Amino acid sequence: MSFPTRALVLLSLALCSAAAGFGAAPLTPEEKLAALGHVLPAAPAPVANYVPAVRTGNLVFLAGHIPRGADGKVIAGRVGADLTEAQAQAAARQTTLALLASLKKEIGDLAKVKRIVRVTGYVRATENFQNHPQVMNACSDLLVAAFGDKGRHARAALGMSSLPLGAVVEIDLVAEIE
Which of 59, 76, 128, 170 is positioned for an S-S bond with 166, CB 3.0–4.6 A? Predict the structure, then answer.
């Protein structure tokens, strides 16, 4: 989504949320995602010996998730060789939706999120690729669109030579919940 288009969508969401203050219920995170054309997939099952989410106190730690297409296949490749930056951003958005599906499965309702605390993004890329933060902005932008200021988070964006199953990105997340 281009910047002007994204800005218009976010402005529309803000206006809808403001209008909700005049009698209608505020939009839920899932309604905000739907307004952007996104639907949460089924929560992915682990592919090894780990659990997708661990809750301790009011924090939920989500295991690293990788992107899968509508056909269930891993979105694989290296940015700068097999995939463009825009394709990697789309994969990061898909991974973020999978993370949110796992979070919802763990806590029951995304409206219980008090804050997205931290995101770590691993981007599989060529040695010359340097726009790892721009790839991860797709994840960060989607979290802010879904949760507003509660979606703003600390983040690391790292370049990798390989990732599990050849995935182009892997993302993990920590959320504070009610």
Answer: 76
Which residue type sits at 112? K
Determine contact, residues 27/20, Cβ cutoff 8 Å.
yes
Q: Is 11 contained in some domain?
A: no
> Residue 52 and residue 105: Cα distance in Å, rounded?
10
Q: How far is 34 from 103, CA to CA, in rounded Å?
A: 17
Residues of the chain with pLDDT under 50: 3-4, 7-8, 11, 19-20
Asked whether residue 18 is assigned to any structural domain, the reply reads: no
User: What is the extent of the structural domain holding 84?
Assistant: 41-177
Is 8 inside a domain boundary?
Answer: no
Q: Which amino acid is at 38?
A: H
The number of folded domains in the chain is 1
Answer whether residue 107 is part of any domain: yes
What are the structure tokens assigned to 176, written together? 């504070």
Predicted confidence at residue 3, as pLDDT, reads: 47
Q: What is the pLDDT of residue 107?
A: 97
Nearest-angstrom CA–CA distance, 7 and 153: 20
Q: What is the Cα gyration radius of the chain?
A: 16
pTM of the entire predicted model:
0.87
Q: Which residues lie closer than 8 Å to 77 by C-beta, 6 or more apart?
A: 83, 87, 124, 166, 168
